[in-house]
From TrEMBL:
It comes from Domibacillus mangrovi. This is Serine aminopeptidase S33 domain-containing protein. Gene3D superfamilies: alpha/beta hydrolase (3.40.50.1820). The lineage of its organism: Bacteria, Bacillati, Bacillota, Bacilli, Bacillales. Residues 51-271 form the Serine aminopeptidase S33 domain. InterPro entries: AB_hydrolase_Est10, AB_hydrolase_fold, Hydrolase_4. GO terms for molecular function: carboxylic ester hydrolase activity.
Length: 319
């Protein structure tokens, strides 16, 4: 495998991984999830070092694919403020990266797949609708837009808070914390939708990515999926508390091309092994321990099988 530091655009740094530089190969564009994480899946402060996208890139390149991953606004080697970037900015970056891959001399332009993780699945949806890739992959996401996913997460959190034993659960139920919190959330969202700023402050000090919220709120993933003609692959983990996997059942009637989805047992949002119960309230507590675990073997095998079947990569190219 050969890895190269590249400039996709004068402002966008990335990493291109190739099986070698002597032939042309199918390619996968990796689209990262939300927050201030770089091309590898790590934050600048060193608190969240997942290396998820680096590991996925190496795995896919080992199967015979060129892979490209890049830094978002204000992450890695890229300047800017990640909080000021809206969905439109993220989509422009993704489209620029897609064009770069298609024009690269070691890439077969007819065999470029977009692969999004978490928020990246929404970017993958945008590219699948507008740029006709040869395939589209949703890892830990898909079908729902961001606002719907956040709604699911809040409802799951309320359910856990209400189920707490003893006095804590009783207080949560009596105070109807779900009703109170939903009113506060609706008020904040309305404030962001009325604003024309990239960010706004709440309670004088706390910045919120208003443009990001506005544009995600306006984006209809299901409408977009109806225009997707390429094969679509989706994979969730059954221990992922950030998703409602039943929405993947809609894929077959939404997309025009062939779709397949998989729910992997004992896999969490970051595609690693989790045997502990599914819990949104315990995610942070478990996070450091889970990062020491490998990517889920069955999850990787499922990805490999789909890539080989749909792009017809010769398995002998594995390195």
């Amino acid at each position: 495998m050969i890895e190269k530091e590249i400039l996709i655009h004068p402002l966008i740094s990335g990493t291109l991984a190739l099986p070698d530089d002597k032939d042309t190969y199918p390619a996968v564009l990796l689209l990262a999830g939300s927050g201030p994480i770089d091309r590898d899946g790590n934050d600048r402060k060193g608190k969240y070092q997942t290396n998820l996208y680096k590991e996925l890139a190496h795995f896919m390149t080992g199967l015979g694919f060129v892979t490209l991953r890049y830094d978002k606004h204000g992450t890695g080697k890229r300047n800017g403020n990640w909080m000021e970037a809206g969905l439109s900015d993220l989509a422009t970056d993704a489209k620029t990266a897609m064009l770069f891959l298609r024009e690269h001399p070691n890439v077969d332009p007819e065999k470029v797949i977009v692969c999004g993780h978490s928020e990246g699945t929404i970017l993958a949806t945008i590219l699948a609708e507008t740029m006709n890739p040869s395939g589209c992959m949703f890892l830990s996401g898909g079908v729902d837009n961001l606002m719907e996913a956040l709604h699911h997460q809040r409802q799951f959190a309320y359910k856990e808070l209400f189920a707490k034993p003893g006095l804590k659960g009783w207080i949560n139920r009596t105070l109807k914390i779900d009703v109170r919190n939903e009113k506060q959330y609706a008020k904040l969202l309305e404030k962001m939708k009325r604003s024309d700023r990239d960010t706004i402050k709440i309670q004088l000090f706390f910045r919120q990515p208003a443009k990001w919220f506005r544009e995600h709120d306006a984006y209809d993933t299901r409408r977009a999926l109806k225009n997707v003609t390429c094969p679509v692959f989706a994979m969730h983990g059954d221990k992922d508390p950030l998703l409602e996997s039943h929405v993947l059942q809609e894929l077959d009637r939404l997309v025009q091309g062939k779709s397949q989805y998989y729910i992997i047992s004992n896999m969490e949002h970051g595609l690693r092994v989790q045997t502990e119960p599914r819990s949104i309230l315990s995610m942070k507590k478990m996070f450091k321990d889970i990062l020491n675990r490998p990517l889920h073997e069955e999850g990787l095998k499922t990805i490999e099988t789909w890539l080989i079947d749909h792009i017809k990569t010769d398995p002998s190219q594995k390195g």
